[in-house]
Amino acid sequence: MANIYKTESDDWKAVIELGRDKNNKRLRKIKRFKFKKDAIKWATEIEKEKNDGLIIETSELTFIDFAKRWLINHKKPKIAASTFREYKRKIHNEFTPFFSDLELQQINPLHIETYFNSLRKRELSENTIKKHYVQLNNIFKRAIQLRLIKYNPITAIEPPKPEKKEAPVLSENEYTKLLRTIKDDFDFFAFITTILFTGLRRSEILGLEWEDTDLESGVLFIRKRYVHAENGYIHEEKTKTESSRRKIKMPDNLVAILKKYKKSQLENQLKLGQIYNNDIDFVFRKPNGDVYHPKYYNDKFNEYLDIAGLSQKFTLHSLRHTFATINMKNNIKPKVVQEMLGHSTISTTLDIYSHVDINMQEEAMKKINNLIDTIN
Q1: What is the pTM of this model?
Q2: Per-residue b or e along 229-261, where b marks 16 or more CB atoms closer than 10 Å to that residue's CB
Q3: What single string gives the DSSP state of each residue in 144-193?
Q4: Residue 33 CA from chain centroid, whole number
Q5: pLDDT mean values, one per 10 residues, the chain (376 residues)
Q6: How far apart are CA 35 and CA 13, in angstroms?
Q7: Is the Cβ–Cβ distance between 174 and 313 less than 8 Å?
Q8: Cβ–Cβ under 8 Å, residues 57 and 22
């Protein structure tokens, strides 16, 4: 239990007993506060860390052991299942082989620099290496908060600079050709047009349920995802970021397509009776009501690209980029596009779709030329 008392200096001291180390030396955490409520708050947090097993004899704590504790006790309650899976993969497949049995307190900037160099020798992109940098940085920051280390060794290393990628976008001629090619496959046509005219991520459209749609008002409510977690795919009531939780207004033509699709789905449900899977309410699923594996949509999209004579550089995600580009070219304000896409910052939207700026600049120059012509 914490011992909190007022000192002769008229401040408050909080003392947490942690037990004894291997040499039988008494271990404790002590901190002073101006107000008692702050001392109580700090002591409560430290007691929780102690009970969770995060506060142990630091001289024997390996970096990998702490990274695992950081993931399970600190990050897991706050992040999406897919993010947890990716963090866990990095710790197991990347951090563990390199850092091995190094103690947390032993890690220095040279270790970090050597680690990043090893990733570059494997020809990983700077975008990928930046993700390693961010995760390591978060681990060391947490270690500092828990007073397990005195400084963050990664701060001495220059952060990787991700390469600016221009998102592949279908031209009007290309997406029109694609839609004409798949039109007779109505279920898939409804799936593709929904992505193209709403900009949903694959995980978002796969997690969409009929209760998330208001076909009378023409609005989609994005609040769930179908994602790859530790033990396969799960339906998660958590979006990628807080800004990803949003409402999207649909064009009337898409609403008509979804109404027709829902009607055919209900007819099929009545036709199959008990054979139909009524345990789920996904918008897009198999004729018998079961869930398609996400790879099904990727494979089918690639097949139709071939049939339409379009490049395999395009993916389902290209439809999301195409949706944004259509809006930007139609002079929809970037802030509106950002909100429809669920980007956390406007810079993300503008960076990805910077190619649209050139087209806009060309239009601006034409207007200036016309203005000059009228003066002359």
Answers
A1: 0.67
A2: eeeebebbebbbeeebebebebeeebbebbeeb
A3: HHTTS-SS-GGGGSPPP-PPPPPPP---HHHHHHHHHHHTTSHHHHHHHH
A4: 38
A5: 82 81 70 89 82 60 92 88 90 94 91 95 92 96 90 93 79 94 95 94 92 94 82 72 81 94 93 90 92 92 96 93 86 84 76 60 64 59
A6: 10
A7: no
A8: yes
